[in-house]
Design brief:
single chain; 307 residues; alpha/beta; two-stranded antiparallel ribbon; 9 helices; 10 strands; 38% helix; globular; binds zinc ion
Length: 307
């Protein structure tokens, strides 16, 4: 079985302005590196379908979904928060990003793929049940986790969020759901200024100072996340895969390298092998330096694909 790779051309049309870091060329950078590294042809390629309303309503308020649909501009840009905007193509892109994440779950649980990477945008982990923020509109990884729980009947799933920012939206959506564990490593104090004081047995937040590089990151992940994951014994694992913690990414001040993303991926896959039949779905979040994003995402996907 291959690693599934899900994307859609609609995700290249969502554009928040020429100076915005969350730009369509991010997906081009990943695509380009996958080709250069001879990984692209080893993946099973799928077009991400649009999400169904029922899939969104598992993790978002109906009034919020209505608001986003009504906010789609006919031309120009409409601001949802200080740094999240919609152009006329954003709604279609957001539907593909969430729909691709849900389809990835169907492929992996249906034994049509060994695991999957969802290369769509906008990203999702800052989106709460009722609010767009931080470049995120629909919470794609949450839609995927809910698909595994509510459609496929899994009882426990875990989300490992290794984006440099805290997955506050994912935490808000699942903090009262005993079926979901969220493990999030993030720079602190830093945007979105959440997660450092969470008191919840299933929300494993690991705040790390600016300047954290591979060795202390791995130590923290090994000590604080792996035992909790093993104790929870999830039946499927998800990655909120952000690569903005790379040393070359100016969005934040972590010092991670490609080898660290390989290591994280191996740890997640090992937990999945122990408890979850190897089931992993990884969903793209951040990563804004195009060169390191392309290299890091390729290293992550190459590891998923055992290439
Ligand atoms: Zn981020």
């Amino acid at each position: 079985m291959h690693t599934a790779y899900l994307t859609h051309a609609d995700c290249l049309m969502h554009d928040m302005g020429s100076r915005h870091p969350e730009s369509p060329v991010r997906l081009r950078a990943i695509d380009d590196r996958l080709h250069a590294a001879h990984v692209f042809d080893h993946l099973a390629h799928h077009r991400a379908p649009p999400v169904q309303r029922a899939q969104l309503l598992r993790v978002h308020d109906a009034s919020y979904v209505d608001f986003i649909e009504a906010s789609s501009p006919e031309h120009g840009l409409r601001a949802l928060d200080a740094d999240t905007r919609m152009n006329p193509h954003t709604l279609a892109a957001a539907r593909r990003a969430a729909g691709g994440a849900a389809m990835a779950v169907d492929l992996v649980i249906g034994d049509e793929a060994a695991n999957a990477f969802v290369a769509c945008r906008p990203p999702g982990h800052h989106a709460t049940r009722s609010q767009a923020m931080g470049f995120c509109i629909f919470n794609n990884v949450a839609v995927a986790a809910a698909q595994a729980l509510d459609v496929h009947g899994l009882e426990r799933v875990a989300i490992v969020d290794f984006d440099v920012h805290h997955g506050n939206g994912t935490e808000e959506i699942f903090r009262d759901d005993p079926r979901v564990m969220l493990c999030s490593t993030f720079q602190h104090p830093f945007y979105p200024f959440a997660g450092a004081d969470t008191a919840n047995a299933r929300i494993v937040n690991v705040p790390l100072r600016a300047g954290t590089d591979g060795a202390p990151y791995r130590d923290a992940f090994h000590a604080q996340i792996l035992p909790r994951l093993d104790a929870f014994a999830p039946e499927m694992l998800f990655c909120s895969a952000g690569f903005d913690g790379h040393r070359e990414d100016g969005m934040a001040q972590f010092g991670l390298l490609e080898a660290d993303y390989v290591w994280i991926t191996e740890q997640v896959m090992a937990v999945a092998a122990r408890h979850a039949g190897g089931r992993v779905v990884s969903v793209l979040e951040g990563g804004y330096d195009l060169n390191s994003l392309g290299r890091s995402a390729t290293a992550h996907i190459k590891t998923l694909a055992a290439l």
